[in-house]
Task: inverse folding
């Protein structure tokens, strides 16, 4: 017999609504600029290799600093870091909208990534904080449902502003949305600053890990053009490994407040969730990149209609995300993540059979399977990570899982791009790349079956620091 869940209070509902705005803001910002790139390129009379850093620069800074943001949120309070991060995000959004040249635009966009990296783990931590423990799965479902919706409407919203107003409004719209989220959060979300913590910041850990991630992500970003044997790429990989060794040494010798505390670094349950994230994040990124390319280059879709063409994935993803939140509380992580790996593998397998003469309807079954897999995967992986550690580490856990997603996506992008580039045609390249992705989903399934724990553990507090 199931135990009745604690009903949500009016304050909790209002607070979750405010955080929904903030989640939408971050998730939408990752995809809204994809359709505005040609207009920005034309406006500043520059080339695509420069303007693409509107997307890449933001994602790079976000990915590098996300762990730092998570740790600072747990140390100094999620609400405080949310306000600081959102203020940075708003300021540079406005500055980006007012950019007079491409360098001002790219600089503003990169610094928005700093604000986003402080906001996101704080948002996730506050969402789980507002929900009672018996609703942890629903918290993850809410987060990823909003993310799925925001990712879906991002290209449509960006296209609307670009066509009917200006690409600058993709920046300006952030101001009212963020302001509403801040004002409501100030009123209804309690200050969660930990008591009795000295607040020592692990600067050595922050710098070494940030440089490790920066050089790794740059190497993965450049490898598709320069090749794996290029001295620059080899050098970046070597530097990344050196900074990782330095980071590990610093963390093992830091007596108080390390960036990644020992109880997280040695948590086997959390580690297996991270490995699963690395393997399956490849699929999401390759889907976002190559399905639109196939629609545009092989089927003759326009940029806006290629975004619409992804709706079978995104709508299914959004619907299943909410259901997954409820299923987590019944079945636990092992069953749901295993099912996610199966659906993602099937989706990749079905889409790997694309040919030049394929029609759009041939893609729909594979995209629906992908949407089901993504809807099960993203909320479950986040909730599994947060519930694997103490409640005082929730923002850090969420940030680390997002870092695994960024790294997995970057590895997948480099791998898939190389496979496609070596193929005689786009359709055959997608066939080969998606086949490899299906095998990665199989590897993730084995990890889930053998190592991921079943039921979510109760989140008890652990000593801070």
Result:
């Amino acid at each position: 017999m199931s135990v009745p869940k604690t009903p949500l209070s009016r304050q909790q509902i209002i607070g979750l609504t405010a955080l929904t705005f903030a989640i939408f803001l971050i998730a939408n910002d990752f995809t809204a600029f994809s359709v505005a790139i040609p207009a920005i390129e034309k406006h500043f009379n520059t080339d695509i290799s420069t303007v693409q850093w509107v997307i890449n620069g933001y994602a790079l800074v976000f990915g590098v600093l996300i762990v730092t943001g998570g740790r600072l949120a747990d140390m100094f309070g999620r609400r405080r870091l949310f306000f600081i991060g959102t203020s940075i995000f708003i300021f540079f959004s406005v500055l980006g909208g007012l950019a007079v040249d491409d360098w001002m635009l790219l600089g503003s966009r990169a610094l928005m990534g700093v604000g986003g990296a402080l906001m996101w783990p704080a948002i996730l931590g506050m969402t789980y904080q507002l929900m009672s423990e018996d609703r942890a799965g629903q918290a993850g479902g809410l987060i990823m449902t909003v993310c799925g919706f925001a990712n879906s409407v991002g290209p449509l919203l960006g296209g609307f502003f670009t066509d009917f107003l200006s690409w600058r409004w993709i920046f300006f719209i952030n101001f009212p949305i963020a302001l509403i989220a801040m004002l409501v959060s100030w009123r209804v979300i309690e200050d969660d600053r930990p008591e009795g913590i000295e607040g020592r910041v692990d600067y050595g850990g922050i710098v070494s890990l940030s440089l490790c991630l920066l050089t790794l992500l740059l190497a993965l970003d450049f490898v598709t053009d320069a090749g794996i044997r290029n001295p620059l790429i080899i050098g970046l990989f070597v530097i990344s490994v050196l900074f990782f060794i330095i980071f590990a040494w610093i963390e093992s010798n830091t007596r108080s407040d390390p960036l990644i505390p020992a109880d997280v670094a040695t948590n086997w349950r959390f580690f297996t969730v991270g490995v699963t994230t690395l393997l399956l994040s490849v699929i999401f990124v390759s889907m976002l990149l190559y399905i639109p390319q196939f629609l545009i280059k092989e089927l003759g879709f326009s940029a806006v209609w290629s975004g619409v063409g992804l709706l079978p994935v995104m709508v299914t993803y959004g619907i299943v995300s909410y259901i997954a939140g409820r299923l987590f509380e019944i079945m636990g992580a092992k069953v749901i993540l295993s099912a996610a790996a199966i659906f993602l593998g099937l989706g990749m397998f079905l889409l790997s059979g694309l040919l030049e003469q394929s029609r759009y309807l041939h893609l729909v079954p594979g995209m629906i399977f992908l949407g089901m897999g993504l809807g099960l995967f993203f909320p479950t992986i986040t909730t599994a990570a947060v519930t694997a550690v103490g409640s005082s580490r929730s923002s850090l856990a969420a940030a680390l899982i997002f870092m695994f997603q960024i790294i997995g996506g970057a590895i997948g992008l480099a791998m898939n791009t190389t496979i496609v580039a070596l193929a005689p045609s786009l359709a055959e390249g997608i066939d080969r790349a998606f086949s490899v992705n299906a095998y990665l989903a199989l590897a993730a399934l084995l990890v889930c079956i053998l190592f991921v724990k079943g039921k979510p553990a109760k989140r008890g507090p652990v000593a801070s620091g």
Notes: Residues 141 and 235 are 41 Å apart (CA to CA). The chain has three domains: 10-190, 202-256, 263-457.
